[in-house]
Model the fold of this input.
Amino acid sequence: MGSGQGGLTVGQYLPILALLVLAALFAGISFVASRILNPPRPTAAKVAPYECGIVDQVDPPQRFPVRFFLIAMIFIVFDIEIIFFYPFTMVLDTLGAYGIIAIVIFSAAVFESFLYLISKGALDWGPVKQLRRSELTSPERTASTTVRRVGLEGRGAPAGDAVEAA
Done:
């Protein structure tokens, strides 16, 4: 059954297999027990969105700005960076030059994502600035010029043209 001196045998993997089987059994039994002991009975209160115990009377006046999510991304990026830096500092002596190079590459990637978020205006909390004008949203662009540019083949006459012809 073994593969010689120093080789691995199937018997050495049995504890791992037993642990996987026990984990699967625990998960399955937990799901079944949950369904048996507390079957789903949806009510209006249970399926309603929950926000700090306050029942919404009206819809929010506007959607959350993208800036909110960019700040959340900055938090997550730097949180993950700190999580990786701590173990690195514990084994810095044993890693040597390889560890330094690896952490420099990692830090460069994190710094690049930070620069991307800054370039998208994640920390600009003042009034919204229009950085560049797009020719797609110029004042000269109207519905009639867009329809004229796209074409009228296979379509009825636009409502504006019917009024002008009368």
Summary: The helical segments are 14-37, 44-47, 66-90, 92-119, 143-150, 159-165. The two ends are 96 Å apart (CA to CA). Residues 33 and 70 are 41 Å apart (CA to CA).
